[in-house]
Design a protein that fits this description.
- The protein is an alpha/beta fold.
- The protein has 22 helices and 22 strands.
- Among the domains are: about 100 residues, Nucleic acid-binding proteins (OB fold (Dihydrolipoamide Acetyltransferase, E2P), Beta Barrel), CATH 2.40.50; about 120 residues, P-loop containing nucleotide triphosphate hydrolases (Rossmann fold); about 160 residues, Rossmann fold, CATH 3.40.50.300.
Length: about 700
């Protein structure tokens, strides 16, 4: 029997009342398998004796005799005080909210005591301790006096009760469990079988045993995570091996665009387009993630990829998360592609009905080659004549269903997803493991790294003085704030009031404009046009300018309350400057009361310009669930594994999982889509050569 096949209710465990069950439910424990997968968050090593006399050096772990009872305090504050004694000294247990211990800690009986003690009021005392009867049941059996699990708890269940329930579940079910990992992998990596792994993760007899159990369960979790990812990848490729077709050479139309460019493509851009071309020449649809740091030239690569689809008589849709970004892409497409005979169009929800109807008609009849827009591209009334390629920019801003909605407008079109928010390799393995990945390394020639400075809020006038000198030299500047308007009781600066102050007090001669998400699209468009023309020299904004703004003359980015932004957002905002030939600067203005974590995050920005390095550090600081929108995917809700910490094991698990899937396409049949059913398919592959 596999673990997931246990169907007994929690009530099958003795001593489980309604209150305890409710507490378990709050922890997400609904079934016996849930309970057995509720792994300890830590372990306490009680295998070594630490007498009361050594309380200052380590948690006490000793056998002591109860010498006396006393009560201190009055009324609801009345507390049981128990005097104990071991061979080295005497001490006191203060039993706050545990008056029932009067009937447990009987005078004259000996107990194993574990806890942190301190010296106060002339006594060695503890208020947080565990006790174990030396002879008897329950608590003693559950912990064994050796290495004891420490679980995440909820109100209504004590640690001893949790240990007791897990112990009972293991005694009743563990020995009947079958392995879920192929035997070849268990043997290759010297892992535990399933039953001993579960026993040792909860109640190990040694630290070495606990570590081996942990390694086993982490690998098992990552292996099946990659089984799911690999299954999707191979399904997409028609159950066959990933093969490449052709050499990826540029097509005639791609060469024509390349020849018109006033600059040379970077080696990273050329490599990426060759990989994309090979994918598009393959018999199965392309599904590729194109990564590149801010300003690395992803959009140009996307346009080159679109030309390959257009040469074959297809249509291309480019989906962007904001109208601001979509409009910029449309303007660039008109500039670069219209001279080649390509007919681009711009479609968003704000297009007026008369113009929209004509545009939709042209799209349905094939009169439009490339359509660029926002969510409107997958509206019900949008019909394509022959959609062969979908490009999704800033892909992490779209959900899986949204991406699928536009894919359904074509017949298995090629998919190219782009991200200017670099995704660490470890996370990409997990979230985008079913995609091929291209990374544009390097930046266009002539780009200078942005110089980044930090400043306390109390020193911000020095920042304003520096910006004033840049403005006097003819440059432009951004000022970014975390809030649009002042909220009640907020001590944060906001964009609306600061735009007024910058315009009237600090920089009255340069022209200041304001842009944020609550403005209508026409106002935002006119504001950006004025900034692009230089009619406005200072743009005050929220993070709405994080993407889609390309002003080569802007040389200063001032981010106030920088500690309120994520590292990826800070890097994206910094990338709005440094797009021209002049040296550019980014100023991170932070609160005078910055926390240690905040200091660590800003230090990463000061020391790094590489977005991939920043993304790795962001992943370490914030965890995988919040990076690149992965909280919507559900892939990272793991029980014991951590894709960042366990990155080496993740790569090995990926290799092993893909090898097994490649060896037998039958593993991917529809009846095995459920991961629980995938587990049942393991045994036939136990002897596969990996």
């Amino acid at each position: 029997m596999f673990l997931h096949e246990i169907t007994d209710d929690l009530e099958a465990l003795k001593g489980l009342g309604p209150a305890t069950r409710a507490a378990l439910n709050r922890l997400g424990i609904m079934t016996i398998p849930d309970l057995l997968r509720h792994y300890p968050r830590d372990w306490e090593d009680r295998s070594h004796v630490v007498p009361l006399s050594d309380f200052a050096h380590a948690p006490v772990c000793t056998v002591a005799k109860v010498k006396a009872h006393d009560w201190v305090g009055f009324g609801t504050m009345r507390t049981l005080k128990v005097t104990i004694e071991d061979k080295s000294s005497s001490g006191v247990l203060l039993c706050f909210n545990r008056p029932f211990l009067e009937k447990v800690l009987l005078v004259g009986k000996s107990f194993r005591i574990w806890g942190r003690f301190f010296y106060k009021y002339g006594d060695i005392q503890s208020t947080s301790f565990d006790i174990e009867e030396l002879e008897g049941d329950g608590a003693s059996a559950a912990s064994g006096g050796k290495i004891v699990p420490v679980y995440r708890l909820s109100a209504g269940i004590a640690m001893t009760a949790m240990r007791r329930l897990v112990k009972r579940a293991l005694e009743r079910y563990a020995d009947s469990l079958e392995d879920e990992l192929p035997a070849a992998l268990v043997n290759r990596y010297d892992l535990f079988h399933k039953a001993p792994a579960l026993k040792a993760i909860h109640f190990p007899s040694s630290i070495e045993e606990q570590q081996k159990a942990r390694r086993t369960l982490i690998y098992e979790e990552l292996f099946y995570l990659e089984i799911v990812v690999g299954r999707r990848a191979l399904e997409r490729k028609g159950y066959g091996s990933a093969s490449t077709f052709g050499d990826g050479a540029l097509s005639p139309l791609q060469n024509r665009l390349k020849a018109r460019l006033p600059f040379e493509l970077t080696p990273g851009q050329l490599s990426a387009i060759q990989e994309i071309n090979r994918d598009m020449d393959a018999p199965s649809p392309m599904a590729r993630l194109l990564q590149g740091d801010v300003g690395s030239g992803k959009t140009l690569v996307a346009f080159l990829a679109a030309l390959r689809a257009l040469e074959r008589g297809g249509q291309v849709a480019l989906l962007a998360p904001t109208e601001l970004l979509a409009r910029q892409h449309a303007e660039n497409a008109a500039l670069l592609l219209e001279p080649l005979g390509i007919k681009p169009a711009f479609l968003t929800g704000t297009i007026k009905s008369k113009g929209r109807l004509q545009l939709l008609k042209n799209l349905a009849t094939g009169g439009i080659d490339l359509v660029i827009g926002t969510h409107a591209l997958f509206s019900k009334d949008v019909v394509y004549r022959n959609l062969q390629m979908v490009i999704v920019d800033e892909q992490h801003r779209f959900g899986v269903l949204q991406r699928q909605s536009i894919m359904d407008k074509g017949n298995n079109p090629d998919l190219l997803m782009m991200s200017a928010t670099p995704i660490p390799r470890t996370l990409a393995f997990t979230v985008f493991g079913d995609l091929d990945v291209s990374v544009i390394q390097g930046m266009p020639p002539g780009r200078k790294p942005v110089i980044t400075h930090s400043a306390r809020q109390s020193n911000e006038m020095k920042v304003y003085d520096f910006v004033a000198r840049e403005l006097a030299a003819g440059r432009q500047a951004y000022f970014v704030y975390p809030l649009i308007e002042d909220g009640e009781g907020s001590d944060l600066k906001d964009a609306v009031s600061m735009a007024r102050r910058l315009d009237e007090e600090l920089f009255p001669h340069y022209g200041t404009a304001l842009i944020h998400s609550k403005l209508d699209e026409e106002t935002k468009r006119l504001t950006m046009e004025a900034f692009q023309r230089g009619a406005v020299r200072i743009l005050v904004a929220t993070s709405v300018v994080e993407v889609g703004v390309d002003i080569p003359n802007a040389s200063c980015m001032v981010i106030e309350h920088a500690e309120r932004f994520g590292l990826s957002a800070l890097h994206q905002l910094r990338g709005r400057v440094g797009r021209g030939s002049a040296q550019s600067y980014c100023f991170l203005v932070y609160s005078d009361s910055l926390t240690e974590e905040g200091k660590a995050r800003l230090k990463v920005m000061l020391e790094n310009n590489d977005g991939f390095v920043i993304a790795e550090e962001d992943l370490k600081l914030r965890g995988p669930g919040q990076i690149a929108g992965t909280e919507q995917s559900g892939y990272l809700k793991l029980g014991i594994a951590d894709p960042v910490r366990d990155s080496v094991m993740l790569e090995q698990a990926r290799t092993d999982a893909f090898a097994i899937l490649e060896s037998d396409p039958g593993f991917l049949k529809p009846e095995y889509r459920c991961i629980d059913q995938v587990l049942r398919r393991v045994k036939p592959f136990q002897e596969v050569t990996l």
